[in-house]
Structures are given as structure tokens and as C-alpha cells.
């Protein structure tokens, strides 16, 4: 997630001992083909000469080191429990704020109307009742959309905790409203099943 933490698969690129000039690459390969080191047998005869194809000089067009790339079979790096708890608490607070704003919007609208009436009595220019109704409707729609988004982000963060086997913070053990980190159901559901025979 957006942090500066590096993946555990990250490897520092190899440090170059000296800079190579791009224009000398082809010449280096030709020199390898013409004057490459020769392999000798025990009797001193030449058995093989290295060509440009077997040159070990790096090309300027060499692809990225495999250590810096994630292969399809590489496992994804999981977030730490601390990061998962932080995300969960952040989205939980966001959800509570969204709920408060939506549920208490009528009180906010009443204060706005009272302020409008005071400005009207003072001879100031104010919005009409119809305009205020439209503003309140649009604000309710906006708060509703925000609440839906906050709920989705909260439950995604909660699911990530449970999948990692981490108990969500704020669970109430004594009331049996504790999320089971193993299979994502509440202990109270288990009690209902035992007492009534169904959930």
C-alpha cells in the first residue's frame, strides 16, 4: 500500500565499476570476435576461441535484472499486522464519522434554516425555501454515497485482518461479539445455533 517500504524481494542493482560508452559497445563485441581469449589443450593447440556471441561484456540494452522483477510464481508481499490494524482503525473512524454526519444531518439542516430566518429578518438576501430543500436533498445524497464508500472500505480492511489471522481491535469478548479470525463469524452466531438449532 503507498508506503515507502520496499518489498522483501527487492535487491539493490549491481554497482558498476566504470561507466561504459554506448558507442563502444559494437566495437567491443567485434574485438571479442577477433581478439577474444583462446582455449588451449594440454599439448598447446588451440581448441576454441571465444566469439562475440560468447562475450561476457554487458550490453547497454541489457534487460532489467531478474532480481528486480517479480515473476508470476513469486508470492505477494503481505502487509504486516501493524499496518493491517492501522488501516482497520483508520477506516473504522471514517465510517463512524460518515454515520454521524448522515444520521445528524437533520439537526444541521435545522440550524441552517434558523440562520437563514435570522438573516431574512435582518433584511439580508437569503435562499428561497425551495432552494434550501434542493440543497438538503443533494447534501443527503452526498453523505449517503460517502457512507456507502466508508462501509465498503471498512469491511475490506476488516476482512484483510481476519484473513491474516489478526483479531480486529475493539472486539468485545465478554459480550461474545468477537470476530473469529479463523473463519470470519461471530461467536454469538455459534450460541444461537446451539440454542435454537439454526442461525
Write the layout of secondary structure elements.
Blueprint: H1 25-35, E1 38-40, E2 46-49, H2 81-103, H3 105-121, H4 129-163, H5 187-196
Antiparallel strand pairs: 1-2
Task: Report the mean per-residue pLDDT as an integer.
Answer: 68
Largest sheet: 2 strands, antiparallel
Global geometry = rod-shaped
What fraction of the residues are assigned to beta strands by DSSP?
Answer: under 5%
Task: Count the beta strands.
Answer: 2
Main sheet strand line-up:
1-2
Helix content: 40-55%
Task: Indicate the radius of gyration in whole angstroms.
Answer: 34 Å
Low-confidence stretches: 1-37, 47-70, 172-178, 182-197
Derived from helix and strand composition plus strand pairing, the structural class reads: mainly alpha
Distance between the termini: 37 Å
**Total helical segments:** 5
**What is the string of SSEs from the N terminus onward?**
HEEHHHH
Descriptive notes:
By secondary structure, this protein is mainly alpha-helical. Among the domains are: 88 residues; 31 residues, no CATH class. Helices cover 48% and strands 4% of the residues. It is built from five helices and two strands, in the order H-E-E-H-H-H-H. Strands 1-2 form a two-stranded antiparallel ribbon. A hairpin with a 5-residue loop joins strand 1 and strand 2. Helix 2 runs antiparallel to helix 4. The two termini are 37 Å apart.
Amino acid at each position: 500500500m503507498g508506503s515507502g517500504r520496499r518489498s522483501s524481494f527487492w535487491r539493490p542493482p549491481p554497482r558498476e565499476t566504470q561507466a561504459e560508452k554506448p558507442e563502444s559497445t559494437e566495437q567491443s563485441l567485434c574485438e571479442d570476435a577477433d581478439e577474444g581469449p583462446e582455449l588451449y589443450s594440454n599439448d598447446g593447440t588451440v581448441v576454441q576461441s571465444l566469439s562475440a556471441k560468447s562475450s561476457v561484456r554487458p550490453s547497454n540494452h541489457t534487460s532489467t535484472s531478474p532480481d528486480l522483477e517479480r515473476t508470476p510464481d513469486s508470492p505477494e508481499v503481505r502487509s504486516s499486522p501493524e499496518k493491517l490494524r492501522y488501516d482497520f482503525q483508520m477506516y473504522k473512524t471514517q465510517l463512524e464519522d460518515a454515520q454521524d454526519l448522515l444520521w445528524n444531518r437533520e439537526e444541521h439542516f435545522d440550524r441552517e434554516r434558523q440562520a437563514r430566518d435570522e438573516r431574512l429578518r435582518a433584511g439580508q438576501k437569503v435562499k428561497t425555501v425551495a432552494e434550501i430543500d434542493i440543497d438538503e436533498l443533494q447534501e443527503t445524497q452526498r453523505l449517503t454515497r460517502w457512507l456507502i464508500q466508508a462501509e465498503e472500505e471498512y469491511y475490506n480492511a476488516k476482512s484483510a485482518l481476519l484473513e491474516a489471522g489478526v483479531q480486529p481491535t475493539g472486539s468485545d469478548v465478554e459480550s461474545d461479539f468477537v470476530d473469529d479470525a479463523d473463519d470470519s463469524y461471530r461467536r454469538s452466531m455459534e450460541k444461537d445455533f446451539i440454542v435454537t438449532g439454526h442461525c
